Amino acid sequence: MSHILIIGAGGVSQAATVKCAMNSQVFTKITLASRTKSKCDKIAKFIKDKVGVDIDTAAIDADDTAAVVELIKNIKADLLLNVALPYQDLTLMDACSQTKIPYIDTANYEHPDTAKFEYKLQWAKDGDFKSANTMALLGSGFDPGVTNVYCAYAKQYLFDEIEYIDILDCNAGDHGYAFATNFNPEINLREVSAKGRYYKDGKWIETEPMEIGFSWDYPKIGPKDSYLLYHEELESLVKNIPTLKQIRFFMTFGQSYLTHMKCLENVGMLRIDEVEHNGVKIVPIQFLKTLLPDPASLGARTKGKTNIGCVITGIKDNKPRKVYIYNVCDHQECYQETGVGAVSYTTGVPAMIGSMMVAKGIWSAKGVFNMEEFDAKPFMDELNKQGLPWEIIEMAPNETRLIKEI
Ligand SMILES: NC(=O)c1ccc[n+]([C@@H]2O[C@H](COP(=O)([O-])OP(=O)(O)OC[C@H]3O[C@@H](n4cnc5c(N)ncnc54)[C@H](OP(=O)(O)O)[C@@H]3O)[C@@H](O)[C@H]2O)c1
Fold first, then answer.
1. Strand pairing partners for 79?
2. How far apart are alpha carbons 145 and 169 in whole angstroms?
3. pLDDT tens digit string along 372-390?
4. CA gap 271, 284 in Å, rounded
5. Which residue has a Cα nearest atom 45 of ligand 1?
6. pTM recorded for the entire structure
């Protein structure tokens, strides 16, 4: 019996809110609140038509902690799911610790003026959540999120010791545009145009953007060019799997995407500082967001599949072991079910499952936590029931699906 307050009304929110409504025995009441209330109402109508469940909607400025506190108290919410933007993580965490309700998000805090994410400021709120006798669950999307749970499952059930992890994120969907980003363009382009980083033998190694890449043979998709990026789950996994010798993250990009991004970067359109244009101050990357297709609109036209997974190498019973755990999602099937494509779906479904783990008390603790700090099994079981089934390939220790370096 939980009343969930969901903040944000983009593509990820739509998937998460639809899935909460499909689990109305757990989420007995749903309030969807965001900056633009009409977007919440549109999602509410979709849910009423498709699932037959009524949800409440509200307008909220998630940057205003006091306003969120008031909303939580007025509607008597039991937990808060943040699927707005990473900029709102800290204010929403404060609103939750002040009202003593659990907080769940899908993305690491970023300051709007600095294209950099790290857990420091969110982990620093551990004491606030402990004092409030409640918890914050960080990064309950796919990556971070399910990828952390795959690693936790491997650590808890498949290996005695984990040594190497490669996280591989492939979106082979085709939306037919020359250039579009598959989630919030500002957040996406800040992440992709930043320097790469990975962890090896106790040290973080920085790379130029897209410096390391290879063609990888993704199960049920085939070979795709994949490039090393820094990604937020690396920070917490290095902390929580201390036997790790190396962990890296790769994402697929087509040549058209990379060429457009380089060109936009070269002309200054990815700048995150203010520039003056005809007497008006604008931030180029925010103006670019206005020009690009709304990621939520890509679902209807995107065809193809995603494959996100982890290749994990380590020791079991004194012998080397290597497994590949992954999920494959079809954009059109996601769209038929929730009205959004696979990128929003693969984030929104785990956001609902993380909220379910907390609402049912299956994951219960006091303080601030990452996904891999809990028993992975109940989450893995829900993935199979809620539309994100996973598969495991047992690989020979020296086997690889790497086709060629690029
Ligand atoms: N872990 C993962 O696997 C993963 C993958 C993809 C995305 N994500 C994360 O998921 C989140 C949502 O992504 P998305 O693609 O759905 O983004 P989106 O389409 O841009 O939606 C964001 C929503 O948040 C609302 N919002 C922004 N600032 C707000 C504020 N101050 N107060 C209230 N509402 C506010 C926006 O309102 P308006 O409609 O008024 O603009 C919009 O409805 C992001 O944090 C993203 O980084 C995680």
1. 4
2. 13
3. 999 999 999 999 999 999 9
4. 6
5. 85
6. 0.96
